[in-house]
Design brief:
The chain is globular. It is an alpha+beta fold. It has one domain: Hut operon positive regulatory protein HutP (3-Layer(aba) Sandwich). Keywords: Activator, Histidine metabolism, RNA-binding, Transcription, Transcription regulation.
């Protein structure tokens, strides 16, 4: 029983949500960030998107994940897991109502995507974390405020 509990515990150095936030908010250059990710044996990327259309935000994040090899585009469960992580992160950004353009709001966001196993046991498999940080507000310059969202989903 103790062995089972040990295998399913989080490794403190592998907290995927915390690392996704740190990756996004870090002032380190891209090469340093990629080294940190690869040292864990994980995959990840960062990017930016701005839009009044939720579907464009989702598409930009999915495209970055596929282009950077974070998920395989021909494996449905990976795209599905990413979609749910994105929607959870967007829910944080939009305070639970995943709407922007339809309620006259726009976002300017930076994002990070991480893929890895946050557990000590390899058998637990990979998880995805999506972190979004930026601004949300009326589509008028100066009418926005900061926002952040985090989504985590298993593959």
């Amino acid at each position: 029983m103790r062995e089972l509990l040990r295998m399913t515990t989080f490794s403190k150095d592998r907290q995927i949500g915390r690392l996704a936030i740190m990756l996004l908010l870090s002032e380190h250059d891209q090469a340093e960030q990629q080294k940190m990710i690869s040292d864990l044996g994980w995959l990840g990327c960062t990017g930016k998107v701005g839009s009044m259309d939720t579907n464009k935000v989702v598409a930009a994040i999915e495209t970055a994940a596929k282009k950077n090899g974070v998920i395989k585009s021909d494996v449905y469960r990976e795209s599905h897991a990413l979609y749910h992580a994105i929607m959870e992160a967007l829910s944080g950004v939009t305070r639970g109502q995943v709407q922007i353009g339809s309620v006259l709001r726009t976002v300017g966001l930076s994002f990070s995507i991480l893929r890895g196993n946050p557990y000590e046991s390899e058998a637990e498999g990979d998880w995805l974390a999506v972190c979004l940080y930026g601004t949300i507000g009326a589509p008028v310059k100066g009418s926005e405020h900061e926002t952040i969202g985090l989504g985590i989903n298993h593959i």
